[in-house]
Each structure stands twice: as C-alpha cells, then as structure tokens.
Recover the amino acids of this structure.
C-alpha cells in the first residue's frame, strides 16, 4: 500500500522533553557544584554525560526532520528549538569546565545566587516546552515564558552587581579575569533560556 | 464583505522610522555622555527609556507581521530588519551601562572619537532606512550604505589603534580589562550598523 | 527564443573552490607566521590580500544567487555556505591582526600546535567542499566532515590545556589577557570549520 511509503509522524515532543530534561539535570547539578564550591572529576564526567545525552536527542530530531513529511509545527522552528534547547546544557557545561580549567575552588555566594536563578529559569523553560503538546495548556506556556523573561532581567541586574562588586573588591587582576568570564557565562545561560521562551511563544502564536 | 476579513497593509515603514529614530537618539546621547566623561543616573534612565521605546516598535512590527497578508517586502527581511535595528540602541545602552558598572569616570579622547564615528554611522543608517520607502530614492539608500561600510572599516582601525595604545600605555591591568571591553563594544555598534546596511542593500536588490 | 531570458546555471562550485582555496592559503600562512614567532608587515599585507580575494568570491556568489533561476542546491544553503566559508579566512586574519595589535612577538609552542590543527581542519574542509560537486564522492565528503568534527574536539581540549597552563605559569596579567584572546580566537577557527562541515553534511543529506 502506498501509505507504507509515507513515514509516520515522528513524535518530536518526546525528544524535546528529553532535551529539556537534560537541561534541567544540568542546572540542578550546577547549583549543587557551586554550593560545595569546586568542581571535581565526577562532576565533570556527569556533566559531560548529560550534555552528550542532550546532544543525541538534538541529532535525532534533526535527522528525523529530514525524513518526516508531517511535522507538528514549522520545520525551521523545530530545527531552531532543537538547537536552542541544546545550547542550554552546552552553556552550563561550559561554565563547569571553565571552573575546572581556571582552577576556581571557591565559587562565591554570587555564583550560588546565579545558579539558583538559572535553575529556576530552566525549570520554567521545561514547563513551557512540556506544555506545548496541547493547545489546552497554552496558558501555562505563556505564564512560563513570562517568568523566563523576568528571570533574564533579574540575571542582567545580577551580572551587573557581580561585576561592579568584583571590580570594587578584587584587587588581583587574574582573579578578575577569571570571575568576569564566569559571571558572563552564567548570564548567557539566562539569555539562551529567553531565546527558547521567545521561540516557544512565537510557535504558539502561529498555531493559534 | 469578505475583504473586511483581510487586514489592511500595515505601514511597517513608520515603525522602522521609529526604531531608527531611537537609534539616532541613543547615538547622540552617547556622544554627549563620553564628552562629559562619565555616566550619571539621568543618562542611564534616559538611555533605558530610548531602548525601551525602540523595543516596543520592534515588538509591534513582529506582532503585525504575523497578522499581515501583504508586506512591503519579504517577511523574513522585515523580521531581520526589526531585529537588527533594535540591536543598535541595545548595544549603545550596553556600553553606557558598562561605563557605569565599571565605574569609568574619565572616558578618554579615543572613546570620544569612537562616539563620533558611531553617531555618523547611525545617521547614515537612518538615511538608508528612511529612503527605503520609495524607489526613486534608491540612489540615496546606496550612497548611505556605502558610507556605513566605510565607517565600519574606520571603526576597525580605530579599535586596533585604541587597543594598541591601551596595551602600550596603560600599566594597570584592571583598567586594561575595562577599556578593552568598552572599545570592543564601540566597534560592535559599527558592525551592527553594517549588518543593517547589508540587509537594506539586499532588500533593495530584490525589489529592483 | 524564450530560453535566452533564462540565465544559465551559474557555476557556484567554482566560487566555493575559490573561497576554500583562500581559507587554505590563510591557514598555511598562519602556521608559518607562528612558527617564526611574530607578524611582520608583509604577513599582514598578504593575509589582508587573501581575505580580500575570499570576500570577492563570497560577494560574487551572493550576487549571482539573486540572479539565478536554477541553483545546485537550496538558495539559503548556498548563501550560508558562502558566508561561513568567508568566516574562516576572516577569523585567521583576526588572529594575525591581533598578534600585531597586541605586539606579541613570541608566539609560543601552544600556538604553533594550534596552527597545525587549524591547518589540518581547513584542509579537510577543502576536501569536503571540493567533493560536493559529484554524488560519487559523497563518501569522501562524509569522511572529511567526520575529521573536521574530530579536530574541533581536539581544539577544545587544546584550548583548555592552553588556558590552564597560561593561568598557572603566566604571572603577568597583561600577558594573560593577550594570550587568552588569541587561544580563544584559534579555537573559534575550528568552530567555524565545524559549522561548514555540518552545513555541507546537511546539504548532502537533502540531495540524497
């Protein structure tokens, strides 16, 4: 029968869920790491593993996209969403790796605060992504996206405060160089979350 | 009548004008701020307000784009132009904010020069954007775009000179860190202006 | 005859070849420069010239794209490939220029190693791009793309090692600032090569 030639609709939502689960796992672990103050080999291995699983989900999405006739929403939006969700765990891994490379062994209270904001934001992104499946949850999607935007603004102010304090109190230029990079990376995670929220929001508008 | 269901063509040009007016205002104020040497709270508030107005115009464009059947040029070009015009005032705000966060209170003669180049470039972008409305002004568009490209090259050289001088004369590493960021931000404004000019140029070619 | 109105298919592949030849030339010269340890005016002029030739090829591609009815693959993929190939030589030029601006006169053994990896990666990109012309060479394209991905990972580790060593051994913060930028730029070249490989890979999949 001819219909056998038409691939069945692939369930992209299951893979987006996998991606955001990885991002949530990464954010949670990041919070735990900065609380104890330093990265050890086990943390790095675990984060690498999380990032790798997220990567696999992203690759599967892109791969299936090329083979699917029917997609739940615009092909390019699926592509962009897979890419941006991937960027979350990637960026968290970048920070963890930087803490190791820069041999930062006393993550400060500011970074702990930052990790909490990131954790909150990634959890809101998870709500937005998971509620995309069904039109009846569009209210939850919108609410979650608004929260992600709010946290991005909180993150901007947080980074400014961190940098102002760093330049005021830290007299060792090498330490300034290191922590400046790390605070900026932390803020970038929130920017990426906001990008995802914007994309999810615009997908919702198109479907309405 | 069925035609009532078809939204009228929205005047996107008016909103692009609003966006570029904000960018011009931002560039003008930036020039004034670095001339007096430091940012005060009133400057920051005014810049935040300019950036906010530009943001609103961009959001309106994106919003109307989803609801319009007829657009003056490619939907994705409209989207990209709204986004890139928004980036100009955003980036100027970033510099102003950085001057405050880094507590730079003596913007140097190099930054004053940079602010003048930025001001010139943004004014040329304004000519290009405002002349897009009518085919008979395409000569002015092209001329303005060429000028923006020229100024981007001037900016590249300017940044190189600024950095070379900074590394040669400034012995305080903390000050090097601060001014290096600020010079690079300044050059980024000119890059964004060039992106806008490229986009406007390619829209013109497609319409010809 | 009506067919006279239809522009002949332009040979985009010849121009992609020109672009990648420029990138190879840039990578080769970069390797030679860091081996001798410093940039002189002749190097800078030569690199500027290479970058300029690559730029011209990119512009010709974009220009012809607007005028061609028939293209060997998706218009937006052609556009993206031209842009990304251009980025390779641009980024190599950025490093060379930075070495001059920062007055680095003793490029270290780490940078020499980095330049070798970049040279290998760009050569693999060249194989991938040149083998795109014919379906029968798709095996070579895939093999080359895998190699580019591998070298990007090597580059990531290389950058981490370089930065760790820099922060450990270099006590002069100004030198840390300079070399940190240069190592990161070097790694960026490998990222760009990977972007090209991904794009070439996805073009191949669509054609299959």
């Amino acid at each position: 029968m001819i219909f056998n030639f038409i691939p069945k609709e692939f369930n992209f939502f299951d893979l987006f869920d996998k991606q955001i689960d990885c991002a949530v796992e990464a954010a949670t672990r990041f919070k735990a790491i900065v609380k104890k103050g330093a990265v050890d080999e086990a943390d790095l291995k675990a984060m690498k593993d999380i990032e790798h699983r997220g990567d696999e989900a992203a690759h599967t999405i892109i791969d299936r996209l090329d083979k699917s006739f029917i997609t739940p929403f615009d092909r390019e939006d699926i592509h962009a969403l897979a890419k941006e969700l991937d960027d979350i765990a990637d960026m968290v891994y970048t920070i963890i790796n930087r803490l190791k490379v820069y041999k930062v062994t006393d993550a400060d209270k500011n970074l702990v605060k930052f990790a909490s904001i990131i954790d909150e934001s990634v959890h809101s992104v998870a709500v937005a992504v998971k509620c995309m499946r069904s039109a009846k949850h569009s209210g939850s999607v919108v609410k979650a996206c608004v929260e992600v935007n709010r946290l991005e603004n909180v993150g901007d102010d947080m980074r400014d405060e961190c940098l102002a304090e760093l330049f005021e109190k830290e007299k060792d230029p090498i330490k300034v160089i290191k922590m400046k990079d790390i605070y900026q990376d932390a803020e970038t995670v929130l920017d990426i979350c906001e990008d995802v929220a914007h994309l999810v929001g615009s997908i919702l508008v198109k479907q309405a």
